[in-house]
Design a protein that fits this description.
heterodimer; A: about 160 residues; alpha+beta; Immunoglobulin-like; 2 domains; six-stranded mixed beta sheet; three-stranded antiparallel beta sheet; 9 strands; about 30% helix; B: about 110 residues; mainly beta; about 0% helix; elongated
């Protein structure tokens, strides 16, 4: 935009064109960045609500989702966490989030040592192409996370 | 609103064996974001928000569901068979009603 302020060296038309273009570009990037920020904020709020503010480590979670989902209304998802599942060391919960759904929360599953393995499969709705995020809560309080991008051809969640 | 709660549990298992349990219930899982095509009004949210699996009266698996869980929710999970007993599966609807199903397991 700095060019526009220097009006003396350019014709009126050029100045207007530059100004117009600049405004449109600013509007476009503004809305896009705004939407992305809103999604990220929704996601981090949802995660904070579920597990608090503690630091998370990547890994230990196997998030099994299709790379391309034809129908966002029913996307098969399977989440497994590497753990011995003993009384002393087990997975307490896994929370799943979808960053671009109208609400980021998808589901939480709660395991016990009686589960044997920390694994659950179900079907979820995805409003569009986006990252699915899993956060696992261990019995010692540590948190692990994983994410996977799913391309959705037809979105779910109504609307 | 929901109907036909179904579970698939093996009848027998060896001690220490990890079995897979599959559950399914018919429910439209209304998200609360869809509009009625005739009136244009929002259809109120009605979903199953909780699913619990108890074994011999003790909770062994549970799940909280949000509107992002698909209609006719399916859930598969595991259980380590240590003793014979009875499973009870309970689904809780937004309107407070519950649906349940039982299944027995013999460990030998």
């Amino acid at each position: 935009m700095s060019k526009i302020t220097d009006k003396t060296t350019m014709s009126r038309r050029t100045a207007l064109e530059l100004a117009g273009g600049g405004v449109i570009a600013a509007l476009l990037t503004g809305t896009l960045a705004g939407a992305a920020r809103a999604d990220a904020a929704l996601l981090s709020d949802a995660i904070k609500k579920a597990v608090g503010d503690s630091a998370m480590t990547e890994g230990r979670i196997t998030l099994d989702l299709p790379e391309i989902a034809e129908n966002g209304n029913t996307v098969p998802v399977s989440v497994a966490v590497d753990s011995p599942m003993t009384e002393a060391d087990h997975v307490k919960a896994v929370h799943l989030f979808a960053e671009k759904n109208p609400a980021a929360d998808v589901a939480s599953v709660y395991f016990t040592p009686a589960s044997g393995v920390a694994k659950a499969s179900f079907r979820m709705r995805l409003a569009g192409t986006q990252n699915v995020v899993a956060v696992a809560e261990m019995s010692d309080g540590s948190l692990f996370t994983a994410k996977k991008l799913v391309k959705v051809t037809i979105g779910g969640c109504g609307g | 609103m929901a109907s036909k709660p179904r579970v698939r549990v093996p009848k027998t298992a060896k001690k220490g064996e990890i079995i897979t349990i599959k559950s399914l219930i018919s429910h439209k899982m209304e998200t609360g974001r869809r509009k009625d095509s005739k009136t244009g009004e929002l259809i109120p949210r009605q979903i199953i928000n909780k699913f619990v699996c108890n074994f011999n009266g003790k909770q062994v698996f549970a799940s909280d569901w949000h509107p992002a869980v698909s209609a006719n929710p399916f859930m598969a999970f595991n259980f380590k068979a240590e003793e014979s007993g009875e499973f009870e599966f309970v689904w809780t609807d937004d309107d407070g009603s519950t649906y349940s199903k039982k299944a027995s397991l013999t460990v030998n």
